[in-house]
TrEMBL record:
<comment type="similarity">
    <text>Belongs to the BTG family.</text>
</comment>
<feature type="domain" description="Anti-proliferative protein">
    <location>
        <begin position="94"/>
        <end position="113"/>
    </location>
</feature>
<dbReference type="GO" id="GO:0005634">
    <property type="term" value="C:nucleus"/>
</dbReference>
<dbReference type="Pfam" id="PF07742">
    <property type="entry name" value="BTG"/>
</dbReference>
<dbReference type="InterPro" id="IPR036054">
    <property type="entry name" value="BTG-like_sf"/>
</dbReference>
<dbReference type="InterPro" id="IPR002087">
    <property type="entry name" value="Anti_prolifrtn"/>
</dbReference>
<dbReference type="GO" id="GO:0005737">
    <property type="term" value="C:cytoplasm"/>
</dbReference>
<dbReference type="InterPro" id="IPR033332">
    <property type="entry name" value="BTG"/>
</dbReference>
<protein>
    <submittedName>
        <fullName>Protein BTG1</fullName>
    </submittedName>
</protein>
<dbReference type="GO" id="GO:0008285">
    <property type="term" value="P:negative regulation of cell population proliferation"/>
</dbReference>
Length: 162
């Protein structure tokens, strides 16, 4: 299958999650939210097109990582601009520290620098390989974790309703 088809679930999971955060903040109409979600999916698809490696899921993870800290993630900012939301408004609506990893077979996020990583979507990798243990992940998850004294204690599973 072309990468686009392969990435569909991961991308729609990620876009739906950010949309859900915006909806929870309130004050944005459903029509705008729907448009935001579609714009974000499109932006992610375009951005990830040549950076999706199902055989090496962690490869390119840093490139695909969606991050909001003191600056707005450009892809989220672009989708928000399509529905007339300024970066300032986005910073008010979304968590001030959000990291979202969109990798083949797994979408996870963390809110806050020391928050625990929660999995939004996980699917077994083809070939029956079980998911790698957390320690062996060298992706952008690792970089942010280096030098932190408090290890993430709980690893919450969150189910996603589309």
């Amino acid at each position: 299958a072309p990468a686009g088809a392969a990435m569909r679930t991961e991308i729609s999971t990620a876009a739906a999650f950010v949309t859900r955060l915006l909806r929870a903040a309130g004050g944005i109409g459903e029509e705008q939210l729907r448009c935001f979600r579609e714009c974000l999916q499109e932006a992610l698809r375009e951005h990830y097109k040549h950076h999706w490696f199902p055989l090496v899921p962690s490869k390119g993870s840093g490139y695909r990582c969606i991050r909001i800290n003191h600056k707005m993630d450009p892809l989220v900012g672009k989708a928000a601009g399509m529905i007339g939301l300024s970066h300032e408004r986005l910073f008010q609506l979304l968590p001030s520290e959000l990291t979202l990893w969109v990798d083949p077979f797994e979408v996870s996020y963390r809110i806050g620098e020391d928050g625990s990583i929660c999995v939004l979507y996980e699917s077994p990798q083809p070939g029956g390989k079980t998911t790698k243990p957390l320690e062996s992940r060298t992706s952008c998850k690792e970089e942010w974790r280096i030098g932190r004294s408090s290890p993430s204690k709980n690893y919450n599973m969150m189910t996603v309703s589309s």
